[in-house]
């Protein structure tokens, strides 16, 4: 009889310990999750504010790598972050400042904004995010001169994550041209060999 009593007490104690461990574990998980979320929101806010405050007339990127890096920062912000319509308009102006005149002529502002907003909405609907990116090193950029104009070709690698599938790395080839003031502007870009690289 006493053995049954002991066994029952032991089972009860084990149940209490397990329940307590689960409650503590869940509390720690929630606390860390909230902390990570707040931390990432602060970082996101800082990035948006930094991009919004940037003045390309005073501090335009000095070389092709910096141009594509700044372009990539803007794209990540537009596609990933929660931004207002007003912030979107400011970021689009900055984005288009990086574009060559020829590219601007092919993409009138109104059409460009509509297409971009549609693409961003589709991205968010599919719960996609650009987790990270890398651009070619300065030593990997290919420079050419044609018809008295200077061109540069380089790559950008964008790691795209979704909730439903494995991350993929999208490789884009950028073509830049130096304008009359000596600034490098993006003339165009395309998927490298039309491929999306799975990881």
Question: How does this model look, in words?
Answer:
With 199 residues, the protein is an alpha+beta fold. Helix content is 53%, strand content 26%. Strands 1, 2, 3, 4 and 5 form a five-stranded antiparallel sheet that branches. Helix 2 (64-80) runs antiparallel to helix 3. Residues 25-41 and 194-199 have low confidence and may be disordered.
What are the SSEs and their pairings?
Blueprint: H1 2-53, H2 64-80, H3 85-97, H4 101-106, H5 109-125, E1 129-135, E2 142-146, E3 149-161, E4 168-178, E5 184-198
Antiparallel strand pairs: 1-3, 2-3, 3-4, 4-5
Helix pairs in contact: 2-3
Helix content: 40-55%
DSSP strand tally: 5
Q: Which ranges are low-confidence, i.e. pLDDT below 50, for 5 or more consecutive residues? A: 25-41, 194-199
End-to-end C-alpha gap:
62 Å
Order of helices and strands: HHHHHEEEEE
Structural class: alpha+beta
Largest sheet: 5 strands, antiparallel
Measured on Cα atoms, how large is the radius of gyration? Answer: 25 Å
Give the overall form.
elongated
Portion of residues in beta strands equals 25-35%
The number of helices is 5
Question: Kindly state the mean pLDDT as a whole number?
Answer: 82
Provide tags for this entry.
5-stranded antiparallel sheet, alpha+beta, 5 strands, 199 residues
């Amino acid at each position: 009889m006493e053995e049954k009593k002991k066994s029952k007490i032991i089972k009860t104690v084990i149940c209490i310990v397990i329940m307590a461990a689960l409650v503590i574990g869940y509390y720690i998980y929630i606390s860390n999750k909230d902390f990570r979320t707040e931390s990432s929101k602060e970082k996101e806010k800082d990035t948006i504010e930094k991009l919004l405050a940037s003045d390309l007339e005073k501090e335009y990127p000095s070389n092709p790598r910096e141009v594509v890096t700044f372009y990539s920062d803007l794209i990540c912000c537009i596609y990933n972050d929660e931004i207002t319509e007003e912030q979107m308009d400011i970021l689009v102006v900055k984005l288009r400042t990086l574009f060559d005149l020829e590219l601007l002529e092919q993409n009138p502002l109104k059409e460009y904004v509509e297409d971009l907003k549609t693409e961003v909405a589709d991205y968010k609907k599919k719960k996609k995010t650009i987790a990270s990116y890398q651009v070619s090193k300065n030593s990997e950029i290919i420079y050419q001169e044609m018809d008295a104009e200077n061109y540069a070709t380089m790559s950008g690698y964008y790691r795209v994550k979704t909730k439903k599938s494995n991350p993929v790395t999208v490789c884009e080839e950028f073509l830049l041209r130096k304008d009359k003031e000596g600034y490098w502007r993006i003339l165009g870009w395309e998927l490298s060999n039309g491929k999306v690289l799975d990881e």
